[in-house]
Amino acid sequence: MFRPTQLPTPDQALPGRATPMPILEPHFVFGRPLRAPLPEGMEEVMFGMGCFWGVERKFWQHPGIWLTMAGYAGGLTPNPTYKEVCTGMTGHNEVVRVIFDPRETSYDDLLKLFWENHDPTQGMRQGNDRGTQYRSGIYTYSEAQAEAAEASRAAYATRLAAAGYGAVTTEILPAPPFYFAEDYHQQYLAKNPQGYCGIGGTGVSCPIGLKA
Predict the structure, then answer these.
(1) Residue 108: in which H helix or E strand, if any?
(2) N or C: more exposed end of the chain, with fewer CB within 10 A?
(3) Domain boundaries, the chain
(4) Which residues are catalytic, by number?
(5) EC number(s) in its UniProt entry (predicted)?
(6) What pTM was estimated for this model as a whole?
(7) Cα dihedral 83→192→63→209 (10° resolution)
(8) Strand partners of residue 48
């Protein structure tokens, strides 16, 4: 399938729909409703780092994670379907939204996981997966998250440059609306352990504490 590597303009984007994606199944690993409200004391993050199947598994395996969910964000089309996102004409990225307990893990820990498990220098692709839906992105829910994300990008860019990589292309934006992906995408690699996982890191470690 042809996937553009340029984001659509508003007049090019598909119209979408007002009806949200129906999500009927609970989280396959944690057993919690995917539309559960944010529990008191928990925090949320959202990342794009390639095909969301493998990305979501990385996060649900991490200590201190309460819930993960696959979806679409950063585009123009309301409530898109997977087929629409794959055309490149919604502008959305494949993302994973994560709810975590800051008493058990930290935002810095999750940023480290993000940077070390994909190649953030590849623009509109990740490995063999090409298109705008595979771009690297951090979508922040507070000013503190934004500042930490920017600092981590600068620190990791220095390490990557020293290892011979090009410029970091990761976008860092305030969290846009999150649209759930279809049920069959949720926790896909828990349901299909031998399924496709296209993510892989550079082998360059991110500085501990995310400071240069």
Answers:
(1) helix 107-116
(2) N
(3) 57-198
(4) 51
(5) 1.8.4.11
(6) 0.95
(7) -50
(8) 137
Q: Who contacts 48 (Cβ-Cβ below 8 Å, separation ≥6)?
A: 55, 73, 74, 93, 94, 95, 96, 134, 135, 136, 137, 138, 139
What CATH code would you report for 57-198? 3.30.1060.10
Per-residue model confidence as pLDDT tens digits over 76-129:
999 999 999 999 999 999 999 999 999 999 999 999 999 999 999 999 999 999
Radius of gyration of the chain (CA): 16
Strands, E assignment, 4-113:
43-49, 65-73, 93-100
Side chain identity, residue 145: Q
Structure tokens at 193: 């352990």
Identify the three-state secondary structure at position 94.
strand
d(CA 84, CA 90): 7
**CB neighbours of residue 162 within 10 Å:** 9
